[in-house]
């Protein structure tokens, strides 16, 4: 895990750089540092969610990538609710274990980058990638810091992230590990749907900003105040810390209860979700559940804080 | 001592509870006459299938799980009986199934057709049911409960034949094999995302009925102990089943065998379809199933409050600190009823003349007459007196009636006054007083929480949970030493709970936004009725409409979704929305929203707001609300230029 300086040298020697379009200013923070000119040999694959692109004028910040010097770009139209809608467009590419591949997860929805990482491993045999992430500087709290915060709106549907169904053995005890976010409704819904014997919440600490860890606890008050719930902490920008914590919980559960069906709900930051993704990739018996909303809010954060690169072994 | 304290109302979810905990927390609804349509003996003996319908947290899962064999076996152990004796006493054995919604939804999509998914899901369902039958048998066999050992009877070979397995002697390898086949489906569900491929297991794909009825029939045939018993499939959260999945189960309901019956738990309006897989036929209430409503807003006529008190007692007893201190009666924590007079006195204490001054300014009644009917000790009585004056009763008559009532005289006047004050208007007066003082009504007491829960046990528990959390935070020692929770802490709990539930509406699948707009608007209409200074339509909080007759299917579906999620609740019988109106279906807004709109938490009857299709459409749309379109023509809002005697500031 390394910080990526905005003033640092260009990022070069990549075969593929995969990202999602977005109207946040962080959407193209890393892309702007990628050497993607005619001689670079780097192909940019940009996912355009139909729902995000619809009804946007051409001067919308979402299209700012068009102002960058990119020689080879593939725009993949996809459906926010159905990650496999991008499958056929990706098949044309020659991903394999020899290629240098980087994925910027900043503006991807979580189910999408979960899908993408497993796809790269399962279909194309990619064994490692670099994941980039730019932290937002602000979140917008429409109704005040300690009241409702939603990254999504409209009805929710709790799903298994495609490709992460896990394996529930007979008589296995269900354990739910929630990476805590600001949206308290989501954790409650998931806990009710999964109905585990034990629930653990992992709060991001240190958070991007000192208050965030408290906001997430307050927003999830109902769940957290339950006397059966354990609270643990992992750094909000550190996927590997989350990974290690999940591995420790798994070991602990195996020792205590024998067969345990671990469910992970990655509601917190994207780096935390990345840790959960990696853990589920390495432990295919683990299920990943996620609340798929009707729509994601167009913009719930703004400006750029630190950017990070994580070297991820997919197998 | 307080170190052992934890919130007694936190975290008890029936699906998650272990067997002992289910027994510890179990309160039989039959003891409290909660359901008129079902007797305890019907659970195992009723020949028809039974569908238990109710909103979230109405206790359906607790109810279904209680009758399942693991709980009944544990019960037998506690009562020092043999499991088989319990089963025989019940005349049946129950098998509980809950498939969570992420799994159900995973049997869909990836451009694979419904036939593909239906076949796969049926296979999954049959395996899931079949494996549980065998596990129950194995458990009985391990406990030497069944005289005919499964392994020495014809049972295992016949099961192997049914499953197309090589002959086995013991149950365990058969169970292991079924489990392996279930895992194969899990693997397929995970892989299909990346490799769109056919489902090709190394064994048969089981069609509907093959194991769910097939193994059940073998059990009945092969074991004398089961010959006269019913096999009950307790299927929970049926509303989460996708349409084709319901069609598959609906067909099972249609073709159940004499000793195999379903007890299905679901939300109201939880049937996505009445159609059946593989036939043009459909299932029908009364023919394929009997409906039992678990969520009844009218349940105040039953022993519902006693049921709630018993549930609370069990939770309070689970906390050592409270148990040892003898604080196990929720009514003592919350107080039995509201003290409206005290609440009114507290409300007016800093400005006791406001009502008098407002009437003096706006009512046209003389100062002398108004002064005659003042009652500084009881602001509610003073307000009622002034309303009597507005209604044309003389000041002398009003004063005399009040005096007779307060002095306990048995006069006609006192009787009339009592009827108005105690029986009809006291709560309405409190709402009006709050409206005049621009203060929020307090929602507290066991009785109020019982009403606010709207027949949904989980809502009562949540109100208690929040009250205890507030009390603990504010003054933990007082909570644990006195065993009481203040009005303010309860009110804050009720208000927060109301806001949280209202916020949840927009998260309802499919029609969340529409329903949210509707509730916001209808709540404000009810609020306007509560601010009527003449109290002509006290405590209006219901509306009348005919959902089935709506031409716009979207409106119809939205209303049905509102019922499914208990946002609105249908009254059991039809009523008139007002004198001279035809009989109509009446709906109440879930009482938990009452604190948000500052409206009454109980049903008074009388006036309901009649809504036609156009009005419903407007209330669900983004259009601005014009309250006068929904209030009577004689106008509750036309008494002053601003529309109210006491205009909001």
Can you put this structure into words, describing what you see?
The complex is a heterodimer of chains A (315) and B (649). Chain A is α/β, with parallel strands linked by helices. Chain A has two domains: 2-138 and 301-313, Rossmann fold, CATH 3.40.50; 146-296, 3-Layer(aba) Sandwich (Rossmann fold), CATH 3.40.50. Helices cover 24% and strands 30% of the residues of chain A. Chain A has helices at 50-53, 87-91, 110-122, 184-194, 212-219, 221-224, 239-257, 270-282, and strands at residues 2-4, 16-20, 43-49, 73-78, 101-104, 128-139, 152-160, 173-179, 198-204, 229-234, 260-266, 287-296, 301-313. In chain A, strands 1-13-6-5-2-3-4 form a seven-stranded mixed beta sheet. The two termini of chain A are 18 Å apart. Chain B has helices spanning 19-25, 42-45, 60-66, 69-78, 83-90, 101-106, 114-142, 155-163, 171-191, 214-222, 243-254, 304-317, 320-325, 330-334, 340-348, 354-362, 367-372, 379-390, 395-406, 412-437, 446-452, 457-482, 487-505, 512-530, 553-564, 594-597, 613-620; strands spanning 49-53, 92-97, 230-235, 260-266, 289-293, 542-544, 568-570, 575-576, 583-584, 586-589, 609-610. The longest helix of chain B is centred in the first third of the chain and has 29 residues, at 114-142. Chain B contains 27 helices and eleven strands. In chain B, strands 2-3-4-1-5 form a five-stranded parallel beta sheet, with helices on both faces. In chain B, strands 7-10-6-11 form a four-stranded mixed beta sheet. Chain B has a two-stranded antiparallel sheet with strand order 8-9. In chain B, strand 8 (575-576) and strand 9 (583-584) form a beta hairpin. Helices cover 49% and strands 7% of the residues of chain B. Chain B has 649 residues and is α/β, with parallel strands linked by helices. Chain B starts with 18 loop residues before the first helix and ends in a 29-residue tail after the last helix.
């Amino acid at each position: 895990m390394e910080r990526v300086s905005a003033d640092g040298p260009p990022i070069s020697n990549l075969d593929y750089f995969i990202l999602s379009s977005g109207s946040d200013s962080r959407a193209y923070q890393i892309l702007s540092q990628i050497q993607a000119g005619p001689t670079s040999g780097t192909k940019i694959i940009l996912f355009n969610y139909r729902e995000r692109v619809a009804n946007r004028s051409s001067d919308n910040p979402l299209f700012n990538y068009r102002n960058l010097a990119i020689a080879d770009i593939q725009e993949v139209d996809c459906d926010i609710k159905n990650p496999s809608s991008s499958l056929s467009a990706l098949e044309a590419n020659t991903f394999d274990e020899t290629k240098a591949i980087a994925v910027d997860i900043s503006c991807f929805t979580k189910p999408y980058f979960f899908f993408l990482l497993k796809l790269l491993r399962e279909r194309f045999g990619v064994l490692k990638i670099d994941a980039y992430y730019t932290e937002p500087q602000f979140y917008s709290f429409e109704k005040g810091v300690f009241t409702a915060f939603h990254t999504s709106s409209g009805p929710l549907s709790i799903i298994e992230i495609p490709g992460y169904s896990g394996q529930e053995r007979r008589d296995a005890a269900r354990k739910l590990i929630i990476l805590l976010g600001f949206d308290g409704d989501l954790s409650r819904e998931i806990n009710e749907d999964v109905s585990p014997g034990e629930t653990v919440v992992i709060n991001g600490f240190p958070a991007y900003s000192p208050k965030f860890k408290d906001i997430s606890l307050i927003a999830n008050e109902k769940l957290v105040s339950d006397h059966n719930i354990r609270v643990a902490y992992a750094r909000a920008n550190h996927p590997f810390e989350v990974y290690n914590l999940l591995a420790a919980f798994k070991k602990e559960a195996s020792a205590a209860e024998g067969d345990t069906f671990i469910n992970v709900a990655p509601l917190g930051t994207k780096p935390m979700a990345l840790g959960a993704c990696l853990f589920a990739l390495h432990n295919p018996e683990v299920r990943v559940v996620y609340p798929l909303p009707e729509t994601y809010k167009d913009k719930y954060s703004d400006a750029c804080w630190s950017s990070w690169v994580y070297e991820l072994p997919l197998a | 001592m307080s170190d052992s304290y934890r919130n007694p109302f936190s975290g008890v979810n029936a699906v998650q509870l272990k067997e002992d905990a289910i027994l510890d927390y179990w309160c039989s609804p039959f003891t409290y006459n909660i359901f008129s349509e079902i007797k305890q003996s019907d659970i195992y003996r009723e020949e028809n299938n039974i569908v238990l319908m109710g909103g979230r947290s109405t206790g359906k899962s607790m109810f279904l799980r209680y009758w399942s064999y693991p709980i009944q076996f544990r019960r037998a152990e506690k009562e020092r009986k043999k499991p088989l004796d319990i089963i025989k006493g019940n005349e049946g054995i129950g098998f509980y199934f809950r498939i969570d919604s992420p799994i159900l939804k995973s049997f869909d999509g990836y451009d694979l057709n419904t036939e593909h998914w239906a076949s796969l899901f049926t296979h999954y369902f049959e395996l899931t049911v079949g494996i549980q039958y065998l596990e129950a048998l194995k458990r009985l066999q391990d406990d030497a409960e069944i005289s005919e050992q499964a392994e020495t009877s014809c049972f295992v070979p016949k099961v192997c034949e049914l499953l197309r397995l090589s002959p086995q002697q013991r149950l365990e390898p058969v169970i292991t094999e079924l489990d392996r086949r279930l895992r194969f489906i899990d693997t397929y569900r995970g892989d299909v995302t990346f490799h769109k491929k056919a489902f090709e297991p190394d064994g048969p794909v089981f069609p509907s009925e093959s194991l769910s009825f097939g193994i059940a029939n073998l059990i009945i045939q092969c074991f004398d102990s089961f010959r006269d018993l019913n096999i009950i499939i307790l299927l929970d959260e049926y509303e989460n089943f996708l349409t084709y999945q319901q069609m598959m189960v609906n067909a099972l309901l249609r073709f159940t065998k004499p000793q195999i019956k379903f007890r299905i738990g679901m939300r109201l309006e939880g049937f996505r379809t009445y159609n059946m897989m593989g036939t043009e036929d459909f299932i029908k209430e009364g023919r394929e199933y009997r409906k039992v409503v678990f969520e009844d807003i009218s349940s105040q006529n039953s022993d519902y409050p006693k049921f709630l008190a018993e549930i609370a007692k069990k939770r309070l007893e689970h906390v050592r600190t409270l148990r040892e201190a003898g604080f196990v009666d929720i009514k003592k924590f919350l107080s039995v009823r509201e003290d409206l007079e005290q609440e009114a006195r507290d409300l007016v204490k800093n400005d006791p003349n406001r009502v008098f001054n407002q009437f003096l300014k706006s009512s046209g009644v003389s100062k002398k007459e108004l002064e005659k009917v003042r009652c500084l000790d009881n602001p509610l009585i003073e307000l009622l007196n002034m309303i009597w004056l507005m209604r044309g009763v003389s000041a002398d008559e009003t004063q005399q009636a009040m005096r007779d009532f307060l002095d306990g005289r048995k006069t006609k006047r006192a009787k009339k006054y009592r009827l108005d004050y105690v029986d009809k208007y006291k709560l309405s007066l409190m709402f009006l007083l709050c409206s005049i003082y621009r203060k929020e009504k307090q929602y507290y007491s066991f009785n109020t929480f019982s009403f606010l829960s709207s027949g949904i046990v989980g809502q009562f528990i949540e109100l208690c949970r929040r009250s205890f959390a507030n009390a603990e935070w504010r003054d933990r020692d007082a909570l644990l030493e006195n065993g009481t929770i203040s009005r303010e802490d309860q009110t804050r709990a009720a208000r927060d709970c109301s806001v949280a539930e209202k916020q949840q509406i927009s998260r309802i699948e499919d029609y969340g936004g529409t329903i949210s707009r509707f509730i916001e608007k209808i709540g404000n209409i009810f609020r306007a009725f509560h601010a009527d200074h003449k109290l002509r339509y006290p405590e209006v909080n219901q509306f009348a409409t005919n959902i089935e007759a709506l031409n716009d299917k979207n409106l119809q579906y939205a209303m049905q979704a509102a019922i499914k999620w208990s946002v609105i609740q249908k009254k059991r019988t039809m009523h008139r929305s007002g004198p001279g109106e035809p009989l109509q279906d009446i709906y109440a807004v879930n009482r938990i929203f009452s604190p948000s709109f500052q409206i009454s938490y109980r049903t008074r009857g009388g006036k309901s707001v009649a809504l036609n299709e156009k009005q419903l459409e407007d209330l669900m749309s983004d259009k601005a609300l014009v309250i006068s379109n929904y209030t009577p023509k004689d106008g509750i809002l036309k008494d002053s230029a601003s529309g109210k005697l006491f205009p909001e500031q």
